[in-house]
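This section describes the prediction task in plain terms. A model, or a person checking by hand, is given the sequence of a single protein chain and must write out its three-dimensional structure as a string of tokens. No templates, partner chains or ligands are provided. The sample shown here is typical of the held-out split.
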Amino acid sequence: MILVGNQRGGARDLANHLTKDENDHVIVHEIKGFVSDDLHSAFKEAEAMSKGTKCRQYLFSLSFNPPGEENVSTEDFERAIDKAEKSLGLTDQPRAIVFHEKEGRRHAHVVWNRIDTDEMKAIQLSHSKRKLNAVSKELYLEHGWRIPAGYINNALRDPLNFTLEEWQQAKRNGQDPRIIKQAFQDAWATSDTAAGFKHALAERGYVLAKGDRRGVVAVDRFGEVYSVPRQLGLKTKQVRERFTSIQDLPSLENSKMEASKLVQNKLTSFVLELEAKARAVKERYQEEKKSLVTKQRAERRALLEQHAIRQADETLMRQSRFRHGLKGVWDVLTGEHFRIARQNKLEFERALQRDRDELDFQIERHKQDRRSFLKDIKRDNDLQKAKTDRQNLLDEIAEISKQREHGRKKDRGRSLSL
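The expected answer:
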């Protein structure tokens, strides 16, 4: 269970954050040690107490995040909270517990009042991160969960061990020369004029240019230069026969700029197309998600209402066991009244645990439904392909922009040297 905590002030903002409706379900599970019985007023109490001290960060907020696939009961959360509370030295301090459920995961937020009212000063929370890490590891071991690699080896916390430039360079160097040659030959075969050849190559991402030795070359989107005769398998004279004058071709540097611009514009249009496709799929899933969450909230309210009605009926039934008048006095004298009271208390505790178990069972079922829904989204081939293709295109556009900027700097440097 990952624990993340911090000292803070801002009573109203924190209460708003913990109760806002962006989660699928929000349950204020416990408010203990405060006079108020609602979250906003309770945190305001802590703020008012802090006025008698110099403490500005009078609250300690701690989140409890178990592995998403695990079934963690309310009692498991409470035991984890008690462990952290004891480790931090916040035992008996006023606290509030709020459960959040979102995307099939359930986690808890606990907020303590740091102000010790007897001493009228804030409780010192030295080495809180180290203490919470120790509690976290203990919880993983206690429940038999797989410990995250970052807890074992700090070096494993950062999975990014290569740069974007390195990845793109490997991709560029891995181009198949047979595919490149085929593109040139197809463009040549489908055109019979210099203009036609130029247009055909442009469709394939290449721009014709005048080479340094009065030859004809082509430039790709990465700024790589290709000899047209060599790619076509023809003699230089055969290629030049199609061109009335190679002087009409742009310079090599200008062609590099034109090639990158041509491809970048094309790729940008593809990105917009993919974004529209992904947006349509997301909108459909958002509607389905909204319907599922609405259904689950209704089921949650119905169960809580059922519990309230049953608790009221059972309380009346237990109270009816006590006799009144002289018979009631007799029961007190014989000890029967106290036997009934003990029996009622035991039944009340069992009923409370029964209701809690029913609620935990429903919560876990709702989490499973949300996880299944998320798996459906992740398995949606159209959405995933659109995301992957879009990211690949954005990477290509970034590389092209970088190459173009590099070309501009070279041109400026050449102009200055002249």
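For orientation: The CA atoms of residues 253 and 407 lie 7 Å apart.
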